[in-house]
Amino acid sequence: MDNPILFYEPFESNGFLSNFYPVDIEVSGVVWPTSEHYYQAQKFPCSIIQQEILNAKTPDIAFSLSRKYEKHARPDWYDIRVSVMESIVKAKFIQNPCLAHRLVNTGRIELKEHSHKDDFWGDGGHGKGKNILGRILMDVRETLQQTKPYNLVSFIDACKLPTQWGEFQMNAFIEHATQKEHLALVYGDISKVKAPLIRLHSECLTGDALFSARCDCGFQLSKALKNISEEGAGVLLYLRQEGRGIGLSNKVRAYHLQDDGADTVQANEQLGFAADMRNYEFCQGILGYLGIDQVRLMTNNPRKVKAMQRANINVVERVPLQEGNNPHNRNYLQTKASKLGHMFDSTFIK
């Protein structure tokens, strides 16, 4: 059995679970700087006291003000305080998807506010307190775990990935529906970019690793990473959807059919597959975990643009990625344009 996840101070490990963690929460048109500000203000029917707590520079000051005005608290406060806490904690995570993904990613491990000062909201420091805040967080987590996009993927871990284009952070995710592993290569500080440059790159072992000239995949992968590094910040999602979703062995079979004269679409269909079997819905979970809800998307594929829009990701710009035209893939590129609707300049596939 896993040890409980303990939290208390807002800037320590798992501090995002704390009511003192700084994140805006809007309630009835009023923006509160922390859930602690909101909770403490609700003790008082007096709007002047509420406003003073709202304007408190820190949650510690908000807490102190509630103690200062204790005698002015509403008489039914102890009857409603848990429901008030439930409402603001739920709002905190619903309104801040990045935090919601982090909460969901704690799995089923027990959450405990490790406070030696409080054995009602916390565990009392000795582990035997009521831990009401921890229980509320676990209830919110359970709800989110059954809700898209939070139930689409799980974050596994992250590490540094030095490349010829600079150092990326490599983030690993598991897609729940298929148990496939996917990567998000993050360059720079994407939190400072309103709509970061991104690429959805489906795995292509032959093109990415074996330098095949039969497709444009490896060329696009290199150019996308270069573009992201030159941009200063961005993300490449490396998606385990080999062969437009048919898998590596079937891709070899499709190549054999292409050797005999079929084009890339005909080969898939002769094997009993659709022209493109890929699914991008789970990308909403990965991008949400990274705090991204709008992007500049590097692609020539209109299906990717539509897939992002269906996943509630706003594509503010499509950035063409035309690379790798050569004698071995010219027919392949022309088929992608004529049968799959890929958007190439006429001079590129001439």
Automatic annotation (TrEMBL):
Biochemical pathway: Cofactor biosynthesis; riboflavin biosynthesis; 5-amino-6-(D-ribitylamino)uracil from GTP: step 1/4
Function field: Catalyzes the conversion of GTP to 2,5-diamino-6-ribosylamino-4(3H)-pyrimidinone 5'-phosphate (DARP), formate and pyrophosphate.
NCBIfam families associated with the record: PRK00393.1, ribA, ribofla_fusion
Catalytic residues, chain numbering: 276, 278
Gene name of the record: ribA
Xref: PANTHER family: 3,4-DIHYDROXY-2-BUTANONE 4-PHOSPHATE SYNTHASE, GTP CYCLOHYDROLASE II-RELATED
Name of the protein this chain belongs to: GTP cyclohydrolase-2
Domain NADAR, first and last residues per copy: 7-145
InterPro entries assigned to the protein according to its UniProt record, in alphabetical order: GTP_cyclohydro_II, NADAR, RibA, RibA-like_sf, YbiA-like_sf
Reactions catalysed: GTP + 4 H2O = 2,5-diamino-6-hydroxy-4-(5-phosphoribosylamino)-pyrimidine + formate + 2 phosphate + 3 H(+); 5-amino-6-(5-phospho-D-ribosylamino)uracil + H2O = 5,6-diaminouracil + D-ribose 5-phosphate; 2,5-diamino-6-hydroxy-4-(5-phosphoribosylamino)-pyrimidine + H2O = 2,5,6-triamino-4-hydroxypyrimidine + D-ribose 5-phosphate
The species this protein was found in: Vibrio marisflavi CECT 7928
Cofactor: Zn(2+)
Binding site for GTP: 199-203, 220, 242-244, 264, 299, 304
Keyword tags: GTP-binding, Hydrolase, Metal-binding, Nucleotide-binding, Riboflavin biosynthesis, Zinc
